[in-house]
From TrEMBL, chain A:
Superkingdom of the organism of origin: Bacteria
Membrane topology label: Multi-pass membrane protein
Domain ABC transmembrane type-1: 73-261
Name listed for the protein in its UniProt record: ABC transporter permease
UniProt cross-references to PROSITE patterns, sorted A to Z: ABC_TM1
A Gene Ontology cellular-component term: plasma membrane
PANTHER family assigned to the protein according to its UniProt record, in alphabetical order: D,D-DIPEPTIDE TRANSPORT SYSTEM PERMEASE PROTEIN DDPC-RELATED, OLIGOPEPTIDE TRANSPORT SYSTEM PERMEASE PROTEIN APPC
Single Gene Ontology BP annotation: transmembrane transport
CDD domains, A to Z: TM_PBP2
């Protein structure tokens, strides 16, 4: 435990990322205590400037931007983490199977991965959301189901190199089944780069959701940063604060996950870590 | 033969490169006929790249042969693998060259050793299995075993790991063990120990062993029978005494005459070999050893010599015997 702590603090990117993330989680958990207004309640002060009453001002419908940003963190974190979890699980399984089994199975799966890579993911998400509706659940599932290709390719490469190692051969000779080898040896030994990759996937999922909300097809029932910006776009000339604070929140979150991913990557890969 | 354990006939493994170089087939193993009896130790000697490891891997079904058949107790192994894969795996075990990479680095010794028992349903409870592994660990000199079972592979030395590897194979009580250069990565000081542990265990259980190595002295010490491999083919096979003291094939003679001895004053006529180390690409049609052989003649260039029976189970494939 102490070991992990010193490792985290030895890496600047990881340290900053983890501090940001802890702040974000605290904000999301204690949102009702931090926010001074209900983000869904409209009030009479429309497009009020940032002041001591409204820290980040109010939007075109008189909602408190600060409270919206605080509550928005819940939506963004939920989407980011769940979508990344779905995509990493799918990617790890598909990539692991392709890399370990090899041969025809690998060829077929690789072609499927290439197909998904060629698809303009964002438009696919648009179509699915347009057909099945933009509830939070749908958005999470759709983002998760379309963004697993990177993880799959990474895991496939890992599995292919692990497959040739002696300990896999020895597991085969003592009679372990392919399923046991895949889940007990290949995946646990190849998972570290995947963890780093998944952390970055969280930030791209948050960005996808923000993009969807921005063009107006996010979940209409929850506050999200993308929606704050989309709403603020119309008031950009006379209410700069609406877009700005929503945007800063997105940058802050994406940066936190990106730094953590990059930090883990550096820690695990001695070749890429800089000499201090 | 009644007590024949494994019969190998025309075993071949070719690697065919993709693309244009279709004629550059790599003949890693090129037609091997062998038979291993119960309780026998067969040594296989050959230089790097002669296909001896590929041969060993085919015997435990890690690689699929291109052609030829392997019969285990009279039944073709393809059939056994289809019908009862676990039964074959239990009876045919392998000890690998690199002890540092034989075990999953994330598993501790207890898990490494109990896994094969669990898979093959040996021992009725977890506790019984642990007692079994502790007993055999103490027997092979890993003492105190209780301290070791919670350690991870990287915390053990090469010699200790190779002992664990031997224990793991022997726990299944196999009928055949393939030892692929089991001591070549170990420190010289522990080699004898490991070899003796291995020999004691297989004698005790009546296990047969195929001992693959490039070290003639070790192989001579271990084996009842020795086969010499050159470029995927067996060039000479016979009892250990016949091979070491009465080698007939020029390649065997070269190997034995160059074998290092501890006595610096011992007089020997070293036979020097000319030519490049061999590659198994584009061999034939003549004798594969012709280019480096010190007594080749025109006949050797034209066709590959058949195995000649020299009596007493001693065979060699050379025209000039």
């Amino acid at each position: 435990m102490k070991d992990i702590f010193t490792k985290i603090s030895s890496n600047k990117e990881l340290k900053i990322g983890v501090i940001f993330l802890i702040m974000l989680i605290l904000i999301a958990v204690f949102a009702p205590h931090i926010a001074n207004y209900d983000p869904y309640v409209l009030n009479d002060d429309i497009i009020a400037k940032p002041s001591s009453k409204y820290i980040f001002g109010t939007d075109g419908l008189g909602r408190d931007v600060f409270s919206m940003v605080i509550y928005g963190s819940r939506t963004s974190l939920k989407i980011g983490v769940l979508a990344a979890a779905i995509s990493s699980v799918i990617g790890t399984l598909i990539g692991g199977i392709a890399g370990y089994i090899g041969g025809t199975v690998d060829k077929i799966i690789s072609e499927i991965i290439n197909m998904f890579l060629m698809l303009p993911t964002f438009f696919l998400i648009l179509i699915v959301v347009a057909i099945y509706g933009g509830s939070l659940k749908n958005i999470i599932i759709v983002i998760g189901l379309t963004s697993w290709t990177g993880t799959a390719r990474l895991m496939r490469a890992q599995a292919m190199s692990l497959r040739e190692r002696t300990f896999i051969k020895s597991a085969i000779t003592i009679g372990e089944s392919n399923k046991e080898i895949l889940f007990k040896h290949i995946i646990p030994n190849g998972i570290f780069p995947i963890i780093a990759d998944s952390t970055m996937a969280v930030s791209s999922a948050i960005l996808s959701e923000a993009g969807l909300s921005f063009i107006g097809i996010g979940d209409p029932n929850v506050v999200s940063w993308g929606k704050i910006i989309a709403h603020g776009r119309g008031y950009l000339t006379n209410g700069w604060w609406i877009c700005t604070f929503g945007g800063i929140a997105i940058i802050f979150t994406v940066l936190a996950f990106y730094l953590i991913g990059e930090g883990i990557n550096n820690l695990l890969n001695p070749k890429s870590s800089r000499l201090n | 033969m009644v007590n024949s354990l494994m019969k190998i006939k025309g075993l071949t493994k070719w690697y065919i490169p993709k693309g244009k170089n279709k004629n550059k087939i790599i003949k890693a193993v090129d037609g091997i006929d062998l038979s291993i009896n119960k309780g026998e130790v067969l040594g296989i000697i050959g230089e790097s790249g002669c296909g001896k490891s590929t041969f060993g891997r085919m015997l435990v079904a890690l690689e699929k042969p291109t052609a030829g058949s392997i019969k285990f107790e009279g039944v073709p192994i393809n059939q056994i693998l289809k019908e009862n894969q676990l039964h074959f795996k239990k009876n045919c075990q392998m000890i690998f060259q690199d002890p540092f990479d034989t075990f999953d680095p994330r598993n501790n010794i207890q898990r490494i050793l109990t896994t094969p028992l669990k898979i093959h349903n040996i021992g009725s409870s977890h506790k019984e299995r642990i007692d079994m592994i502790i007993e055999i660990m103490e027997e092979t000199g890993i003492k105190p075993a209780k301290d070791f079972i919670h350690r991870y592979p990287h915390e053990l030395s090469g010699g200790q790991l190779q002992r664990i590897s031997i224990i793991r194979s022997m726990l299944l009580n196999p009928k055949l063990i393939i030892a692929d250069e089991p001591v070549s990565m170990l420190d010289v000081s522990v080699r004898a120990d490991i070899i003796n542990i291995l020999l004691n265990l297989i004698k005790k259980h009546g296990t047969s062993m195929i001992f693959i190595s490039h070290d003639i002295a070790t192989t001579g010490y271990v084996s009842d029978k020795i086969a010499i491999m050159y470029l995927g083919k067996i060039v000479e096979i016979g009892s250990t005494d016949d091979i070491i003291k009465n080698a007939q094939h020029p390649y065997t003679k070269v190997l034995i005459s160059n074998c290092a001895s501890i006595d610096p004053f011992e007089k020997r006529n070293r036979i020097k070999v000319k030519g490049e180390p061999p590659t198994p690409v584009g061999t034939g049609p003549g004798c594969y050893f012709y280019e480096r052989c010190y007594r080749g003649n025109d006949r050797c260039k034209e066709s590959y010599p058949e195995m000649m029976d020299l009596g007493n189970g001693h065979y060699a494939s050379c025209f000039n015997i």
